[in-house]
Design goal:
Blueprint: H1 8-17, H2 21-31, H3 33-38, H4 41-49, H5 52-62, H6 77-102, H7 109-131, H8 137-145, H9 149-157, H10 163-171, H11 180-183, H12 187-198, H13 202-209, H14 218-234, H15 236-251, H16 255-274, H17 302-318, H18 322-336, E1 341-347, E2 353-361, H19 367-370, E3 372-374, H20 380-388, E4 393-394, H21 403-412, E5 417-424, E6 427-435, H22 445-461
Antiparallel strand pairs: 1-2, 1-6, 2-3, 4-5, 5-6
């Protein structure tokens, strides 16, 4: 580059001539909501299949936790469109086009971080829009994704050896507005200029103009981007404290529910980006694995575990019946892991509630009687992490001070417990639970290992019920 631009007009002239003209045409097509919604699936599939890299990227995102809640592998573009719908495919294609355009030829860490932030902001903006009841969330997603377009384009257009590039790299991430001292204008001005020149993402023009109501969908774009930017600079915990009130006021939802949704969106963003080799740089509080304290360490009997396992295997060979086998599984967990209480809880028919059905409790507590929850409104982390993702989780690994942990402790009085999925014929029908009693010691690594063993054995025994 012979001369680095130093004002908005010269930057816009450069950017429209160099780094992203082809990206403009693709995004223009995606920005026509009605056209893409009404396009026949096979025609849309052929359009995607023309670009092998785009095809591969679409399939990656289509199989990510963010878009594929069904848990079944999607191997073709046509199947992606059928299962996920045109609106989700629009969001996926926009994300993939952004990544494909700017991640070519070994993109710098700064560009990777910018794309990760843009995708995170789009996911958060969509989540906020859905919480507030907005129907055209796919427009919110794409507009939010493009909010960082000006900044990404500047980084991608610079020669790494230029002084301004080195200044930008050395200052990254740049707090809002500070970039004007380096490039002579604001990144948001460049984003607006590009969007207006190409007639794309009208919501961005509306947002930048400031002519919108407090309940307008464009507010979700602003809130999503502000939250994502803050996460990159300060970490998610600090960002939640800073932005929660404004997001709650906009959505009208419970603060704890909003926190749960935002944290979940961040986790799913990280998983999706991993498929593209991109890291989302969000500082999360480190969770340490609990161990027993002082004289209260719980000792498990591994010999007893082996004996119980052999007994279970013997019984299972004769007859596998859920009602008959579940008490044996609970006894194996409770005795083998030296837990105070072990519970088997079943989901209701509508999958919305969970209630304890069987329990073994050495302490004669009221845990079983109090063990009933609305999965989505009271214990969303259990519903997502344990029953949807089919993972074992220590209760201490749920977000400290979050809705899930508060509801559990309020209902059961138990702080130190462990949760796992109850899987029958490869379907999650409830959960397995064990604790060390009220005011009991923390779950030890040996107890966790024992619990995980018998959760796995329960799944094995219940593969084929007779």
């Amino acid at each position: 580059m012979s001369k680095t631009p130093n004002n908005k007009d010269s930057w816009l002239k450069l950017l429209q001539q160099t780094s992203i003209p082809s990206f403009n045409a693709s995004i223009q097509a995606l920005s026509n909501v009605e056209e893409y919604t009404n396009t026949h699936s096979s025609e849309l599939a052929r359009t995607i299949l023309k670009d092998p890299n785009l095809t591969a990227s679409v399939l990656k995102l289509a199989n990510s936790a963010q878009f594929n809640s069904y848990g079944r592998a999607i191997r073709t573009v046509s199947r992606s469109i059928m299962v996920l719908g045109h609106r989700s495919i629009k969001e996926i294609c926009a994300s993939c086009l952004l990544m494909e355009q700017f991640l070519k030829q070994g993109a710098s860490k700064n560009i990777q971080a910018l794309i990760a932030r843009a995708y995170h902001a789009a996911i958060q903006a969509k989540e906020i829009a859905l919480l507030s009841g907005i129907k055209n969330s796919e427009e919110v997603f794409i507009s939010s994704l493009l909010m960082s377009l000006g900044e990404i384009a500047v980084y991608s257009s610079l020669d790494p050896m230029d002084q301004i590039a080195q200044d930008l790299y050395g200052s990254y991430p740049i707090s809002a507005g500070k970039e004007k001292d380096l490039i002579g204008c604001y990144f948001t001005d460049l984003t607006l200029g590009l969007c207006q020149a190409w007639n794309i993402a009208p919501m961005i023009t509306e947002l930048m103009g400031g002519n919108y109501s407090e309940s307008s969908p464009v507010r979700s774009i602003l809130l999503g981007n502000s939250f994502a930017n803050s996460c990159e600079l300060q970490g998610i915990e600090s960002s939640l404290k800073t932005h929660l009130k404004s997001i709650v006021r906009y959505t009208g939802k419970d603060p704890e529910m909003v926190s749960e949704k935002l944290e979940k969106a961040t986790e799913e963003t990280q998983k999706s980006l991993n498929g593209f080799g991109i890291k989302l740089d969000v500082k999360s509080p480190q969770k340490l694995k609990p161990v027993g304290k002082g004289n209260h360490i719980v000792e498990v009997d591994k010999v007893l575990q082996l004996e119980i396992l052999q007994e279970l295997s013997s019984v299972a060979m004769e007859r596998v019946d859920l009602i008959a086998m579940l008490p044996l599984i609970l006894e194996a967990i409770q005795r083998g892991g030296s837990f105070s209480c072990a519970i088997g809880a079943f989901l209701s028919r509508d999958k919305k509630r969970i209630k304890a059905k069987q329990a073994i409790d050495s302490g004669k507590s009221q845990t079983k009687e109090n063990f009933y929850f609305n999965c989505y409104e009271e214990i969303p982390e259990v519903q997502q992490k344990v029953m949807t993702n089919r993972q074992v989780y220590l209760q201490s690994e749920f977000r400290e001070g979050g809705m899930t942990i508060k509801k559990i402790i309020r209902r059961t009085g138990i702080k130190n417990a462990i949760w796992g999925p109850l899987i029958v014929e490869n379907k999650v029908i409830g959960c397995l639970y064990a604790d060390n009693g009220e005011n009991g010691p923390e779950i030890t690594a040996d107890q966790q290992e024992c619990f995980e063993l018998f959760v796995a054995q329960a799944k094995f025994f219940f593969q084929k019920l007779r």
